[in-house]
Amino acid sequence: MEDPESFTLLPVSIDPTSKAITSTSHSRALQAELTALNELHKSLKNIESAVPPPPIPVNQKRSAQINKLRESGNDAFRKGKHPEAIKFYTLGLQMALTRPLWEPSGLVRDEVSGLYANRAQAHMAMSNWVEGAVDAEASVEAKKAGNSKAWWRRGRCLVEMGRIQEAKGWIGRGLEMEGTEADLVGLLKEIEAKEKKCKVFEKEICI
Amino acid sequence: MFSVDWWSLGLPLAYITVLLGSLITFSSLYRKRKANASATLAPWFPQHLSKDIYLSLLHLEPEPGQEKPPVVPDSIIRAALLRRAVEDIRRIIQIRSAKPACTALLQRGSVGDDLNERFLRAEKDMEDELRDVVQEANALSEGWGNVIFQSANEIAANTAFRKSLNEIQAKAPAEKEWWEKRRAFIQTEFMKELEEGSTYGDGAVAEGVKKKSKK
Fold first, then answer.
1. What keywords would UniProt list here (chain A) (predicted)?
2. CA-CA distance, B60 to B69, in Å (whole number)?
3. Which of A8, A14, A102 sits opposite B154 (nearest CB)?
């Protein structure tokens, strides 16, 4: 093992005008690391203090904006303007995901899971099953427990696309996380009934 | 007047000197050997890239034709130190999650002492590394050492989370393509059924419609 005082001198250099760090090396890992470094440097320059503030307390301004976008989206959804609602949710998602990286990840997860779940609903209202399924999955990825709506929405989308087996597995996992949520249990029963029916008809496409 | 019996005093003193001398020689030899043995052990972690970048930035070489090395702004040094702290967080998590498994395997005799030595060495190195980063942070900006690892922790968690979200979202185009094909296929199948139905009479048509309405 190497001596703790020693290090590998890397062939890095600094651009005098843009202050970006570059390297003549072809190592992919080094290039990726340098890209990350330059991005972090850029986002560090945007803040007032010299160093990133501690994760808590949080900058409330951005949270308020995200909430506002979600409310606008919800309003549009209620009025039946689904594409508009999707636009609002997408803006909100961009806002939440471009938070500086050193802000609390738990907060980002919360905001993102709600927005993805709502966007999935809007997509479902327009029968965009693929987008709905992907968004609901993203929502679950952000928040696994206490997110039964998103579990149900992806299950529904999969059923609509005829992916019965996948839907069954998904809802099964959802029930493990959510306990006995009535909506999920209902959907699982529906899926099982459909599965039986498809077996009887021996049809390749099961919708 | 008492006279000193140099012989009877010198003998025990000589005895003690020889004893201590041999003990010290043994101890120093033993330690040197042990240090050598652990120095030849393979490292637990691969190269610490962000640490090397940080140190390379501190020791930049002058460009050809110029005497002084280029000046690196403090903001870049801070960013580089933060990247280093993020990588440290990742390594700490790895060590913590590997520790119970490593201990259990060692107790059962499934792994050799070598692995355990390497693991302990990595743990110790990590402690030194953390202390070093805190010191550097405090030197760059007063009081930063207290919070740098909190920030680094959030950065590590946020990066991992965004990566998994991107992976999920990246699946959308392929799924969309699949669904378009599938839908077209279902439609042609349905049309075929309808056509077949019309040659056989009304009953079959009703059957075809019924199948569709199951959706």
1. Coiled coil
2. 6
3. A102
Chain A residues touching B57 at Cβ < 8 A: 12, 14, 21
Token readout for B55 is 């140190």
pLDDT for res B34? 84
Q: pLDDT band at A120, cuts 50/70/90? A: very high
Cα-to-chain-centroid distance, residue B189: 53
Higher-pLDDT residue of A48, A107:
A107
- Residue A49's SS3 state is coil
Say whether residue A138 is in contact with chain B using an 8 A CB cutoff: yes
| Termini Cα distance of chain B | 122
pLDDT in tens, A131-187: 999 999 999 999 888 888 899 999 999 988 888 888 888 888 888 888 888 888 888
Question: Nearest-CA distance from A48 to chain B in Å?
Answer: 12
Q: What is the mean pLDDT of residues A83-108?
A: 90
Asked if A153 and A117 touch (Cβ cutoff 8 Å), the reply is yes
Structural domains of chain A ordered from first start: 12-46 (no CATH), 60-206 (1.25.40.10)
Distance from CA of B126 to the nearest CA of A (A): 10
In which region does residue B111 sit, left (phi positive, over 0), alpha (psi from -120 to 50) or beta (all else)?
beta
Q: Please tell me if residue B131 touches chain A, with a CB cutoff of 8 Å.
A: no
Put simply, the answer to whether B158 touches A101 (Cβ < 8 Å) is: yes
pTM exceeds 0.80 for this model? no
pLDDT in tens, A51-67: 777 777 777 888 899 99
Give A197's contacts in chain B (Cβ within 8 Å).
214
Q: Chain A within 8 Å of B63 (Cβ-Cβ)? A: yes
CB proximity B207 to A under 8 Å: no
A160: closest CA of chain B, how far (Å): 8
Locate the chain A residue with the closest alpha carbon to B214. A207
ipTM of the complex: 0.81
Cβ-count burial of B154 within 10 angstroms (0-12 exposed, 13-18 middle, 19+ buried)?
buried
| Cβ contact A168:A188 at 8 Å | yes
Q: What's the rounded Cα separation, in Å, for the pair A174 and A180?
A: 9
The owner of tokens 């029963």 is A189
* Cβ pair A142, A151 in contact under 8 A: no
